[in-house]
Hints:
single chain; Endonuclease, Chain A
Amino acid sequence: MRFDAPPAMRVIKKEHKETQLKAFVGDQVAAQLEAAGENACARVFLLVVRSNESPVIRALASLAPELAGANISLKVVVTPAGGDTTGTWPDELSGLLDCRVILDPRLLDAHEQLWLDPTTAWIGDCMRREPAKRDAYECYAADSRETARFVRTAFMRIWEMAKPIDNPPRSNGEVSAGEQIDPHLAASAATDTPPLASTRH
């Protein structure tokens, strides 16, 4: 499955989110493997996510063997609703994760987002909404340097303010973030390309 259309927000049914994300990321991983073969350089995907149960996490967990085979690891910032940092992460990702948490509730107005490379990114739903329970406007940007740049810039700023989680796949300890964050920081990834549609429905 390929996503060659220009970046734009489109409605994704809740039951299709994980499948769509797995295909999108899987295509990118396969392309990297085809280009580099067994000598693939280490790469990192960057993710801002609502919780360890988001569809994007499940999609990445299902691709864990492919990620490891392509020498790809994950940097993840989780912004848990209600400040709940309990729960477990998929064991499949245990050797791939570098995870941090930030508890500023204003970030819940931002959107889940995943950076894959300088031209490829995904922007998901507002983090106030449970992605597994609602349809959502999402953006699959397969060839947009500008969109990918905004997503990466937002991630790096949030990453610097977030706090590490030790051993995230089995982490049950509460972690607090001592710094406040500009409420527009993460949203900046989606304010230029592509335009956001309202997700309040």
